Amino acid sequence: MEAEAYRASCLQSVAAVYDVVLITSEEPSWEVPYICDCVVVPDPTDLAALSAAGRVLAERYDVAGVFTWTEWYLVPVARLARRLGLTTTAPEAMQACRNKATARSLFARHGVPSAASISVRSLPEAADAAEGIGYPVVVKPAARAASLGVIRADTPEQLPAAYEFADQAAGRGPENTGVLVEEYLDGPEVSVECVTYRGETTVVAVTRKTLSPPPFFEELAHTVDAADPLLRTVAPAARAAIRALGVTDGVSHVEMRLVDGRPRLVEVNGRIAGDMIGHLVRLATGIDLARAAADIACGKAPDLVPPRSSAAAIRLLYPETSGTLTHLSFEGPCPPWLERIHFHHHPGDRLLLPVDGGHLFTARIGYLITTGPTGETADARARSALDRLEARVEPAPIT
User: Fold this and answer.
1) Fewer CB near the last or first residue (10 Å), C or N of the chain?
2) Any residues with CB less than 8 A from the CB of 130 and at least 6 apart, and which?
3) Does the global pTM surpass 0.90?
4) CB atoms within 10 A of CB 64
5) CB-side exposure of 192: number of CA atoms within 13 Å?
6) Per residue in 294-324, pLDDT tens?
7) Distances in Å between the alpha carbon of 150 and those of 122, 214, 283?
């Protein structure tokens, strides 16, 4: 289960300090050891249903704070917190984080370096936008996450397929705010993990990323080094972006690219990062972002003093081709620097890469995490561990 694979460590951290009551879309399973109670709401984006669940729990318990690390629930949970009189960033600011077109507008207004971006509703509009911006361009949904529907078009001939790919990912529900055509920022991608309390932002760590080859933007690896000198370069831009959006309280995952060595904003996610990045930050610095988010939600100042300085890396495991996974194994004993290895696909499962119409949930086999005194060492150990991993896929049509 993706939620358990990537968020169990967050819930465990919070439950070690607080009594947790959960609003969830389905009956709890792996969460049970960490919670005191729950209310099931089939659609937590339904504000009326979410508010009713919040009132039920507030009648049973002295609720001190509410927060989420799920992208789709950011705005409803901010509204719930406000209705309960609890600490929260304004729902309007969370909406600005969710809507990339709004974010681009606010970045421009506040002088935050970003990318040229045009919101479109049709292929002809996309073609006009791309012509004006200049190829290559990035085409993506205005309100999604995890690189879903994000694709590069290098020529006018590639644009129709790219637009269809992004438009399908955008969906047709209330979250759909159209498609963006944006300037391609040519440079390495990083994310900046930040904590904001009462309007003051602390930059905790920078995450260096490895992406898949074009035209997709699948994230293949992340590395966090507590002593990364890049922190000094990216911190001012991250703080400026958070301030521009009006984020006042919580953990933020700020994505940017370094173009000619200078930060250009991609987006701000008003939550703890996915892909176990929060766990990497804890391994590298000792700072617990999940605990910090819970503390802030409860109106308490988070502890952001790093008790250690080391590094950690994650490698996200993908097959080379779509097909059926026939064999998966890791050879030899696990060295102490291999912090964990997790598979959420197993032999017999079918894997579908983005090039064949899939996405990370249909393609990613699992991940492994390594530690080391520096980012270079953690990366080298990850490569060593990958050499001992064998995954065989039988190419076959996916139906």
Assistant:
1) C
2) 137, 153, 156, 159, 181
3) yes
4) 15
5) 30
6) 999 999 999 999 999 999 999 999 999 999 9
7) 16, 10, 30
